[in-house]
Design goal:
Layout lengths: L11 E3 L5 E3 L27 H8 L4 H54 L2
Antiparallel strand pairs: 1-2
């Protein structure tokens, strides 16, 4: 009743960087050393999914990861827009404060000039 295949001794190969690896645990993208190295340009490289892999590995569901992928950039955009609005509001407040101070000073100087006559 044993349906498992007979175990074979693992064979060891050396990856291009020199580290040994078992042939049954090689990454899917492994190419033998006889082949020319594959060049991947940055704009053709797949996106980095490290955070999503960590989230799935820690037990989060795929829906949570998908929400992070969707809402992450959306959140960055919203926070950037809020920061821009606050910066514009601060500029307007500074201009208004400068205007109020200038008017108060000129009114004070006008009163002092009238009294000195």
């Amino acid at each position: 009743m044993n349906n498992l295949p007979e175990p074979r001794p693992p064979s060891v190969v050396h990856l291009p960087d020199g580290t040994p690896a078992y042939t049954d645990h090689l990454p899917a993208t492994y190419q033998p050393t006889t082949a020319a190295p594959q060049v991947i340009h940055v704009h053709h490289a797949p996106p980095d999914r490290t955070v999503q892999r960590l989230a799935l590995g820690s037990g989060m569901g795929a829906g949570m990861v998908a929400a992070g992928v969707y809402f992450g950039p959306l959140l960055v955009g919203v926070l950037t827009a809020i920061a821009a609005n606050l910066a514009l509001l601060a500029l307007v407040a500074a201009a208004c404060a400068w205007g109020v101070v200038t008017v108060v000073k000129s009114v004070g100087e006008a009163k002092a000039a009238r009294k000195s006559r």
